[in-house]
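Order emerges. As here.
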Amino acid sequence: MDQIIQEHDLNMVVPHHGARFNILLGRRTPAMRYEDIFCHDRALMLQVLKGCFDRGVYFHDYGGAAAHHGYSVQHTPKEMGEVLSVLEDVLKKLKGKLCQR
């Protein structure tokens, strides 16, 4: 995900710890305080989630909130590649909506 963000100059960050990660829209550095997530656009995140879902990739929905997601050893490299490909396509289409704050 970090590579996708960098390649497409997306205004978002995906902090990750092991198999857990977060998707935070509207900033380029990890949140250090609660107030740092105020840039996150819930409506846009719902569009990201729906775009992925419509293409067969499910991310758990927390009402569009900045929340954790994850993967496990049950996910094959092929499946992970498919997820990243779908996510990349969806994010590229929504790039102009990722506000700069």
In short: The CA atoms of residues 12 and 26 lie 5 Å apart. Helices lie at 2-7, 42-54, 77-94. The radius of gyration is 13 Å.
